[in-house]
Amino acid sequence: MLVVLTGGTGGAKLIEGLGHEIDPAQLTIICNTADDFVLHGLNISPDLDTIIYTLAGLSDPVQGWGIQGDTFTVLQQLGKLGDETWFKLGDKDIATHITRTRLLRAGLKLSDVTDRLREHLHIKARIFPMSNDGIETRVETPEGIISFQEYFVKRRWQPEVKKVFYAGVKNSRPAPDVLDAIGAAVGIIICPSNPVTSIGPILAVPGVRNALKQVTVPVIGVSPIIGESAISGPAHKLMAAQGMEPSALGVAKGYADFLDQFVIDSEDEALTSKLETLGIGVLATSIRMKSLADKMGLARQVLALVDK
Amino acid sequence: MLVVLTGGTGGAKLIEGLGHEIDPAQLTIICNTADDFVLHGLNISPDLDTIIYTLAGLSDPVQGWGIQGDTFTVLQQLGKLGDETWFKLGDKDIATHITRTRLLRAGLKLSDVTDRLREHLHIKARIFPMSNDGIETRVETPEGIISFQEYFVKRRWQPEVKKVFYAGVKNSRPAPDVLDAIGAAVGIIICPSNPVTSIGPILAVPGVRNALKQVTVPVIGVSPIIGESAISGPAHKLMAAQGMEPSALGVAKGYADFLDQFVIDSEDEALTSKLETLGIGVLATSIRMKSLADKMGLARQVLALVDK
User: Fold this and answer.
1) Are B15 and B55 in contact, with CB atoms under 8 Å apart?
2) A74 CB within 8 Å of a chain B CB
């Protein structure tokens, strides 16, 4: 089993590539849930859903979220009934949230719900939420503390960020099998996901970081940053707010205690010696994933590092 | 204010007619909620919704339920995720249930939720659920006790019915303003709705029947039965199971303690003398409502009885 730590969009691209390069049944995905939130009374897990839709072949390749060809009839009607519409939920996507909400209220754990969705959508990879406990990424701005979704979607990551923290993480536990999966992995892949709001929360769940430090198999990361900007989203802004250097080097520093190899973009090749000083092997290549061929090509190179 | 007691389909037709004949702001609807149920984790109030959609001009005139031109994307996807699909919920309709469920869980009463939906859909008539308490029509069959929706929709009213009862009604209270509205009405209209599962539960809410008995204004009923069959649905079967004669006369007998006038179909004119023996005035006319003109015509005749 290959274990893959991921958030949503960026990680989903690499996972799509991995799913084409090896039997998806060999993949165990550990997914960020600190962006989860409740809207319209429905439990929404944006990163889990992006990964589920990607592995089910349903994802929208243009948007990077939601289901391809989805319609927005429910959301429009919710608007007419006085509800908020800033978070774009498609009709098929809403079916996922209705099902998740129903099962959670019936007493199932998020990991059980995720497994059931995975099964019904015929996904062979295993998908684990990082935790069944409620953990929420919160963003401190000059105007006050807001949720990640409010910062990211509603406010389009424009507010100045003073600090990011994961409410509830200290007393959380990893979801069942998460630590076992890491311990039994033949290789670990850290996706090119936001190190502050996607990978950061996973690492902050008590026990996860330590489990990663203890594995003897290769731990391979892929940078979500090229130059001083995130490939998509606000990773560089959030890293700066957390006192991290907003670069591939800054990402690697955050993972240095468990990372063996880091895949960076050719543009950042000059960082190689600094990364090697941290004890991290480097592969500089093209890491932008625009086409399926890009995703498969990068996945192939990552898999080669695992096998090396 | 005219007070109208109603269930779903049949009552909605007369209410549509009434809404065209007088200013809808003069109507206060008291609606059955004993068919309410939870499906997909969503609180569904079929009769309230039929009335709301009718008065909002959204209803589907062919089906008699749901919203005209609605799509079924969410339901299809729920099916793929392993959920039941025997109750046809359209996408716009689901927005209603999502909103209702969210507001009920936030602590609002069903009457407040109904009022909010009414307001957002620009409905001028007042719409009250008969009660904010959970009351459930249950159907006793040879195979056991099932919910009304299971009997009516899932099993298409085919099981033999031994008895019908309203679980929870004994300790229920009318929703706020229900008794006051009846007391202050200039006339009361009992819609051509199922006397066992639509009007029966309303009358069984403690205080309602007594309030109807005490009014001095005209109480006008419209028969849901022609000959020995319901105009639509299983009213005749359910009446027989309850020991009621399955005819317009049987319906009138059930309402005799408060009914002043009963509108029956011309086909049933022969019942006139028996009805008059009960102290009930009779109007025999065409009571089938297929077109809007039929609905308006019948409404006009009912309003004339109120004014007489």
Assistant:
1) yes
2) yes
